[in-house]
Amino acid sequence: MRSAVGSRNGRLLETASARLESAGCDTPRLDAELLLAHALGVDRAQLYVEDLPVPAAFDALLARRAAREPVAYIIGYKDFRRIRLAVDRRVLIPRPETELLVEAAMSLSEGARVADVGTGSGAVALALKDERPDLEVSGFDLSEDALAVARDNALRLGLDVRFARADLLDDGQYDAVVANLPYVPSGVELQPEIAQYEPAAALFAGDDGLDAIRRLIARTGDVPFVAVEFGFGQEATVADLLGGHTEILRDLAGHERVVVARR
Ligand SMILES: C[S@@+](CC[C@H](N)C(=O)[O-])C[C@H]1O[C@@H](n2cnc3c(N)ncnc32)[C@H](O)[C@@H]1O
Predict the structure, then answer these.
(1) Residue 136 pLDDT more than 60?
(2) 242 CB neighbour count, 10 Å cutoff
(3) Tens-place pLDDT, residues 85-135
(4) What atom of ligand 1 comes closest to residue 118's alpha carbon?
C-alpha cells in the first residue's frame, strides 16, 4: 500500500511526519496522513493510489497539529462504534475505551430506559440508540455547550435521544445508568493535546478524581444496572462504592476501565 512513498505526496508525508515528530506528537505519520487526506477530501487509503495536488490549506492544518491540537478537533469528527460524531473544543473527544460502556449495555432487556450521564458529544447515548433502537435513551450534561454538540449529532445521525441539562441526571426512572464522567485527580499533569484543548470540566473531579463518580453512585443505589468508566488505580474504590456484585471490564490494552453493577 505504501506506493505514495517516493511520489510527491509520499515525500510531503515524510516531511510532514518529521515536523510532527519533532513537535512531540505520538503518532506523527498517521496524523500527517489523516490531515493530508482531510485537506484533499479523500480517504486515507487514496493517498497511496493517486498523487493528488496538495491544497495550500494542508500547511495550516499541519501547523495546528504541530501546536498539539488533537487531530479530531482539526478534522472535526471522531468515529465511535458505528457512528461518526462531530466534535469541537466544547466536548471531550470520545475515546475508544469508552466503547466498553456501550458494549456492556448491549445486554439490557428490550425497551430498557437508559441514562447516559456526562454525555459530552452524545457518544455513548447515540451509539447505544444506533445499535439498540428499542432502548429509550436520555443523555445528561451540565454543559449547555456540550448538549448543543450532542443535539446536533443526534439530528445529523437521525437518532431519537433526549438530551437535557442536569447535575448528573434528572428525577426520571431508569433501568440503567452508564457514565463516563470526569475522573482525573486535580493537579495531574496531562499531555498538551488534553490540557490545552479539551474542556477542563470534562476532565477533573477533585483530589482523588472521584467527586462526580462518588455522587453518581450515591444517587443510583436503586438502579438495576450501573456501568461507570474510571481511571488508572481507581477500580477498587469504584467497585467498593458500588458494593455487591460487580464486574470489571478491560480495554484492548488490558487496562481495567469500566465497572458494571447488576442488581
Ligand atoms: C469525560 S467527559 C465524557 C463525555 C462523553 N461521555 C464521552 O465519553 O465522550 C465528561 C462529561 O461529563 C460532564 N459533566 C461533568 N460533571 C457533570 C455533572 N455533575 N453532571 C453532568 N455532567 C457532568 C462534562 O461536561 C463532560 O461533558
Answers:
(1) yes
(2) 20
(3) 999 999 999 999 999 999 999 999 999 999 999 999 999 999 999 999 999
(4) 12
Q: How far is the CA of 199 from the centre of ligand 1 (A)?
A: 10
Q: Ligand 1 center to residue 181 CA distance, Å?
A: 5
29-36's contacts with Cβ under 8 Å and 24+ in sequence apart are 31/65, 31/71, 32/62, 34/71, 34/75, 35/61, 35/62, 35/65, 35/71, 35/74, 35/75, 36/9, 36/12
C-alpha cell at 61: 492544518
The protein residue with its alpha carbon nearest to ligand 1, atom 26, reads: 202
**pTM value surpassing 0.90:** yes
The closest residue, in CA terms, to atom 2 on ligand 1 is 202
The residue whose CA has the least distance to atom 14 of ligand 1 is: 118
Q: Which residues line ligand 1 (CB under 6 A)?
A: 92, 94, 98, 117-121, 123-124, 140-143, 146, 167-168, 180-182, 201-202, 212
Which residue shows C-alpha cell 500527517? 32
User: 66 pLDDT band (50/70/90 cuts)?
Assistant: very high
Task: State the Cα–Cα distance between residues 10 and 28, nearest whole angstrom.
Answer: 14
Provide the 8-state DSSP code for 46.
Answer: G
Q: How far apart are CA 203 and CA 209, in angstroms?
A: 9
Task: Considering only residues 183 and 245, tell me which one the structure prediction assigns the higher pLDDT.
Answer: 183
pLDDT score for 6: 54
